[in-house]
Design brief:
The complex is a heterodimer of chains A (137) and B (138). Chain A contains four helices and eight strands. With 137 residues, chain A is of the alpha/beta class. The chains are: A alpha/beta (137), B alpha/beta (138). The interface between A and B is large, with 60 and 53 residues.
């Protein structure tokens, strides 16, 4: 008898939170799953512009090559010989990741080529050259 | 009044958990994930690297490919002739029309600027060839 009374009382006061909670949890799970874990390079470089640059959906390991030849990945500066080891580790963690090498406009092509070779040696064959969407042709 | 107090103290307390703090927490988590979700659409140009050893490839190494050379000071040679960056596209279109199966081999000097390389790759793409191999020479 007492229990029934409480039931009516709660019905009066509170909204039923369960469906909202379900919905919010679903949203949360959706966002956790769809979050692309982009490994940012950590430096700002001036990219060359290209009209035909295509969007890389899964391009989420960024390697920056600065104009003075420094290589940055995962928010720290790395040596050229380190690139391969880091890429190997990342490749084991998430095998579907691809690499975009974001090279500064005035960086040297030799460094970019070496980085590209190291990445390929590290196991990721899908390497793209980063570019900015450009208006000039 | 008495009834309400009674139910608040004993009835609710005994058989349902208070969901509000959990809800707050979950909503905060949700907001955190929405904010930190990095919607980076990285743009990139696909280029190939020659397989195997990193030997500088001879310009006539592959019979079916159009050689483009970029020197250290930014000069562009298409088919062994100096051309302007804006002339790369018509040249590529012409050579592509002659041999539609051909790819492009870009031989870059190690000290050439990446900006020039990117622009050349872009022009070649605009010219209709997406099979680009990129190699360096001394």
């Amino acid at each position: 008898m007492k229990a029934r009374h409480t039931a009516t009382e709660t019905e009066d006061h509170g909204i039923d939170l369960a469906p909202m909670l379900d919905f919010v949890l679903n949203l949360l799970i959706f966002f956790i799953i769809t979050t692309s874990f982009v490994k940012e390079a950590g430096v700002v470089v001036t990219r060359a512009e290209a009209e035909t640059a295509e969007s890389r959906e899964s391009g989420n390991i960024l390697i920056a090559v600065r104009d003075n030849g420094e290589i940055w990945m995962d928010r720290r500066q790395v040596d050229l010989r380190e690139v391969r080891a880091v890429i190997e580790r990342m490749h084991v963690e998430r095998p579907e990741d691809t690499v975009v090498i974001v090279a500064d406009k005035s960086s040297r092509a030799g460094v970019v080529a070496q980085v590209m070779d190291e990445v390929r040696a590290g196991g990721i064959k899908d390497v793209a050259l980063g570019a900015a969407p450009g208006a000039g042709g | 009044m008495r009834l309400r107090r009674h139910s608040a103290e004993h009835g609710e307390g005994s058989h349902c958990i208070d969901l509000a703090p959990m809800l707050d927490f979950v909503l905060n988590l949700l907001i955190f994930f929405i904010i930190t979700a990095v919607f980076v659409k990285e743009l990139g140009l696909m280029v190939n690297r020659p397989q195997g050893v990193q030997e500088p490839v001879k310009s006539e190494g592959d019979a079916g490919s159009i050689p483009i050379q970029i020197t250290a000071n930014g000069e562009i040679y298409v088919d062994n002739r100096v051309v302007d960056l804006r002339a790369v596209r018509p040249n590529i279109e012409r050579l592509f029309a002659v041999n539609p199966k051909s790819g492009v081999l870009i031989i870059t000097d190690k000290n050439a600027e990446t900006g020039v390389l990117t622009q050349v790759v872009d022009e070649v793409h605009l010219g209709g060839i997406y099979n680009i191999t990129f190699t360096t020479s001394n």
